[in-house]
Design a protein that fits this description.
Helix 1 runs parallel beside helix 2 and helix 4 packs across helix 5. The protein has 170 residues and is α/β, with parallel strands linked by helices. It comes from Heliornis fulica. This is Protein HTATIP2. One of its GO terms (molecular function) is catalytic activity. Pfam families: NAD_binding_10.
Length: 170
């Protein structure tokens, strides 16, 4: 485990060397970091880390993005997620897997009242429609690992929420 300063990520290039596979789940919220901070963390830091990983020998990069990611979206969150997907793909990994989970079901240490209410509601909906609107973070993690253990379906593979559920339970 290496602790890096993302504001000076290029100074930590050695931490990204010698790894065949890279996993990225980096992200913040606009409420926590402000608009500029959100873009810096969710797009710029991720793209920079991907470039350093590829330069360090990483062959397969797995990125957790978001359902609805689209570089042309009018919503900042979805637009930034779409932009970073394109930036990571452009790095040129032998294999790139992008996971687009729906609302992540998890317990957080920090207070996010609106998200908590959404999770409570979606937890109930998930009993009827288990793969439609949400996914437990443990399922996403298992799906990320499973992508490494299975042969890829092309240079870039995008897994939507239903595929994440299926792969995360395999």
């Amino acid at each position: 485990q290496a602790v890096v300063d993302f504001e000076r990520l290029s100074e930590h290039a050695a931490a990204f060397k010698g790894h065949d596979v890279g996993f990225c789940c980096l992200g913040t919220t606009r409420a926590k970091a402000g608009t500029a901070g959100f873009v810096r963390v969710d797009r710029d830091y991720v793209a920079q880390a991907a470039a350093l990983a590829q330069a360090g020998g990483c062959k397969h990069f797995i990125l957790q993005s978001s359902q609805g990611a689209n570089q042309h979206s009018h919503f900042l969150y979805l637009r930034v997620k779409g932009e970073v997907e394109n930036l990571v793909q452009a790095v040129g990994f032998d294999r790139c897997t992008i996971l687009r989970p729906a609302v992540l079901l998890c317990k957080r240490q920090e207070s996010r009242p609106a998200e908590w209410m959404a999770q409570q509601f979606l937890g109930i909906v998930a009993r009827v429609f288990p793969t439609a609107y949400s996914v437990p973070v443990e399922t996403v993690a298992r799906a990320m690992v499973a992508t490494v253990l299975q042969p890829g379906e092309g240079k870039v593979e995008v897994l939507e929420n239903g595929a994440i559920h299926k792969l995360g339970k395999a």
